[in-house]
Design brief:
heterodimer, A: 168 residues, mainly alpha, 2 domains, B: 488 residues, 2 strands
Amino acid sequence: MVVGFALVAAWEIVTAAGVVAFRKPMYNALSLVANMLGLAVLFLMLNAQFLFAAQVIVYAGAVMVLFVFIIALINPESDVALPPRGNEWIYGAVFGVIFAALLVSLLFNRGLTGRSGTLTPEAIAAVGNVQTIGIALYTKFLFPVEVTSLLLLIAAVGAVYLAIRRIR
Amino acid sequence: MTINISGIGIDYGAILPELVVAGTAIVVLFLELVVPPDRRRWLAAVTVIGLLGALVATIPLWGQNRSAFGDTVIADSLAVFFNVLLIAITIATVAISPRYLHALDLDYGEYYILILGATAGMMLLAAATSLMTIFLGIELLSISLYVLSGFARTTLRSQESALKYLLLGGFATGFLLYGMALIYGATGSTTLRGIAAFTTAASSNAAGNVLLLLGIGFLSVGLAFKASAAPFHMWTPDVYEGAPTIVTTFMSVATKSAAFAAVGRVFIATFPSISSRWYFPLALIAIFSLFIGNLVAITQDNIKRMLAYSGIAHAGYILLGVLPGTAQAFSATLFYIAAYSVMNFGAFAVVTAVAAGGEQNADLSHWRGLFYRRPFLATVMTIFMLSLAGIPPTVGFFAKLFVFQALVNAQIWAPLIVAVIMTIVSFYYYLRVIVIMLAAPDEVAVEKRPLGIPTSTVLGVAGLATVVLGIFPAVVLDWATRAASLHF
């Protein structure tokens, strides 16, 4: 389990670096797909099979396919690269290192003190994985789920306005 | 497998105001299809009627403590206080919108739907008692405002404003969500009630819990971004300047109010036991906001940018009332928010009215001699500037006085000294606007369009409220005191 986690974690770091480092938009997008797939594997290792499937279908599948389509539409010649890097990556690297050092030092000094939940693999197996999520969504989180539908409606109205409203 | 939802406390009465606002948005969405393009003013009327309905629905909830839907949302006096404030701001915004939108050829029905969506999000944020509803409220208001700031689609500045707000807002949302995930990981609960139960239990040693403290830190970054407090204010001047002025008017007061409702519920109600941990970062944010907002505002020659930096400074003053961590001090914050809403809305509404009258340029030099061209606008603007500066007998004076008093009572000296000095600094740029308006006019012939009844009414009421509340502040202070008893 630990070895598996270490492998996936290394995969996540490499692909995340790829998202930032590649100079061709298509490679960035594909790195992001690889990153999303690694995340899905992490969900699987945490006994969240439904989240694994949703992650693969929605993010690695639908959302990223859209990304790749748009990149292909904007650059049909396929080998368009971003302009050469200026000096701005230095700032990004400095802040990234400071931020990472902060997180790592805090965690090593004080230790992780998360709280373990009630949903052990046995508890989930007794009800069923998808059922557990479904019951949580439509009882405990009923109100947030309903608000999300309003959020999507407003987002759709806004997107339609920005995209296709005719200008007089 | 049956799903039992009787135990989660379904209570539509508790969320009736939000339901009415969201329902009005859907009604406007359908009416937009049938109302002819030259009758879009009707949509504004329908919007105002819906908002009045929400106002009626919210009044009976005053003084109650109705937690609903599994502790994700609550109807209490604090929620009612913000509901009334936000609905009033939205009604005033919608009332002055048609004239401005018409002048810019932007009178589309989507505008009212998005304004209603943003209002529903803000009201939800003020009533949210769970990390999930806080997040959804923030996203609902943010996504509406991203589109609204880019509503003038063909204007480059408006596009820039929307894109900048979207990218930086998405970045801040990342912080917010990361913070919430860490808090959940540390406490095992998404509801504020559950989190408070964990942090106040002596056995959990919350003050030494790194995950929890990191989470609170990231959550503060996300909320400070929405309240445009320094050093998370970078987006504010550009977005305020580029967005259509009517949208800036709305978001400069409404977003800030709603964000501080969440700040109160999270910091004062949920984390009182570890106030020693969040006091210093919040004090730093307040001091930064006071310094950056007031000092940079001096150098601005564009009235919208000047008011943006002034808004950053006022975020600092509002945050000062949170620092003592008591309900009494939070009532000063609530009074300040109400006062700020009236006077800052008024100031931006004057900018909107001037723009709708054909003077799109928000450069201060174009305001030279406004007293002679538009005496009414210049007079109310003078009132708002005096109030923003905190000069008696305006409401802005008492707002600052109450916040300073709260700091003295709590013996918090360093932020108080900064605030007093920066208030004196702020006199310069507020009074400068008045001096410019009084200066002898240039010989520029500007076509004058009449203000229209809705605009003059809104401006007159805002100006009157600024003065009357400055003479009789006790009424609103009493409401604020009763609303400041925080529940979750």
